[in-house]
Write the structure tokens for this entry.
Amino acid sequence: MQVSIAYVGPMNRTWLELQVEEECTVSDAIARSGLLDRYPEIDLKRMKVGIYGKFTKLDSLLREGDRVEIYRPIIRQLDDDDDEDDDD
């Protein structure tokens, strides 16, 4: 069956289509895509994954046409003038 894998890194974006066997999990598809070798910053122990924008688990089974997405953590850098009280 055909699925796709999407990852947007700090300096790149990748969308791959691949053929996988029935009973393929999210984790299996990511491993088969080669993205873990290509982008060493991907850490599936701390990054979330989803299918079409909905969080899912690595052991979830895929269906024909699914798009697996690997989400980077969102980190916000506060400026010196930022404070906890934005009422001003």
Summary: The domain at 2-71 is CATH 3.10.20.30 (Ubiquitin-like (UB roll)).
